[in-house]
Membrane associated serine protease, rhomboid family
Amino acid sequence: MYENESFSSSFKRGYRGLPVAIRTLITLNVAVFVLQVVLGIFGRGYSSALIQAFAFYPEWQTALFQPWRLVTYMFLHGGAFHLLFNMLWLWWMGRAVEERLGPRTFTVIYMGAGIGGALLDILFAQIMGFNFVIGASGAVYGIMVAFAMLFPTMPIMLILLPPIQARYVVAGLIALDVLLLGSQDGTARIVHLGGAGIGYLLMRAQIQGTDLSKWMLPVEQFWYRLKGTYQKSKSKPKNKNMYTVSDVEIVDETEQSELDQILEKISEKGYDGLTQEEKKKLFELSKKN
């Protein structure tokens, strides 16, 4: 079907096929890096100014009086390979995590791990040194831990190595960061470890029944207000037949039988176990009021 497809068409199809949260995050990271490169062309000072304005500096005063840095530092990178490896890990492991948990829960884990890693760096900066922190590694580590918890025995193919189970790959990367603590290689390993730890705690909360996706609702409402598209939902009597499926709320009684089958399949195999037709049906139901 795609034998004669051009590279650009194939790229667009693959890009559009990415889950929404991963597609958005990769787009933002690449766009910011392109901006860094363009500013660097005009002079290294411009690129450095961007980093100094939005990177995170591990002091409590920074977190308190310039809290946006806790988020913006994740979208800055020190070079092409720094960006490439972070985005590859995000794509390799993040896709399955987002498809299982949904984009809102995925985003909470990603952002929570990134912010948590930066905050932990404040505690250790007195020992490890004060340096500007940039990069999505802490957030990506949180997603990698989530992947290992969801798919512990999934084989991971690494260069020149046989297939290794996901739990051992992620544990090995974390152990490597622990071993290299204190090395003067410019890598914020405390941020990696903090991101991994927060990712673990958030996944534990999710597994134990906490609906992490609800934490994204105020952000979405704020965004819709900025766009002028926010509509306050009309008050309705509580529907005892309403189900919550990860990030999707469904309140449709007329198709309850088919819905129950989809919900049962999700509980057994996860969202990723649905067919494309079932996913489409679930999406259509989620848009109904």
The beta strands are 155-156, 164-165, 243-245, 248-250.
